Amino acid sequence: MRQNRKNNAKKMVMAAMMACLSYVCSTFVFFPRMAPFQHMFNVLGAVFLGPWWGTASAAVTGLMRMALNGRTIQALIGAVVGAFLAGACYDRTKKLWAAVAAEVVGTGILGALLVYPFMVQFYGLPPETQFWTFIPSYVPSSLMGAILALILLKTFDKTGLLRQIQEAVKDK
């Protein structure tokens, strides 16, 4: 019981740190209509923390972006779908490419489709707008961020740091 609390505390702290780093990077380094660092941290959270804590970190980042930067619900919905799918795929396969692909599919396609009704209902997007309207901006952003994460994770893997981080937050 005591060990489980210790592991949860480690994951909670790591998720919070990743959410803060993701928020800061997404706030100060961005491209028009893109937040690639959110996606990069979604993949990092998936690989380091798994689907649940990775999703929690993405949700906190999205909520901070909404509350502090005036972003729409897009900052939240796409991120959590991609983060969860990336974590679930990595958890199942232990392959970095699976987390990358799942982030792009989860955020770039599924998240883009899922956000459409919210944008129509709460943000005044005209209902005649195509339901796939967000995919062209979500896919490049999630792809760019996922590739950044893959480069970083491959570098960590070569130096042994990837395994060390995973072991540090692993359930024992």
| First-residue to last-residue Cα separation | 11 Å
Helical segment tally?
6
Beta-strand segment tally:
0
Shape: globular
Based on secondary structure, the structural category is: mainly alpha
Give the mean pLDDT.
92
Q: Give the DSSP E fraction (strand runs of 2 or more residues).
A: under 5%
Order of helical and strand elements: HHHHHH
Radius of gyration: 16 Å
Instruction: Profile the largest sheet.
Output: none
Helix content: over 70%
| Contiguous uncertain segments of 5+ residues | none
Task: Explain the overall architecture.
The model has no long low-confidence stretch (mean pLDDT about 90). Helix 2 (about 35-70) packs antiparallel against helix 3 (about 75-95), helix 2 (about 35-70) crosses helix 5 (about 135-160) and helix 3 (about 75-95) packs antiparallel against helix 4 (about 95-125). It is built from 6 helices and no strands. It is globular, with a radius of gyration of 16 Å. The longest helix is centred in the first third of the chain and has 34 residues, at about 35-70. The chain is mainly α and about 170 residues long.
Brief sketch in words of this structure:
With 172 residues, the chain is mainly alpha-helical. Helix content is 83%, strand content 0%.
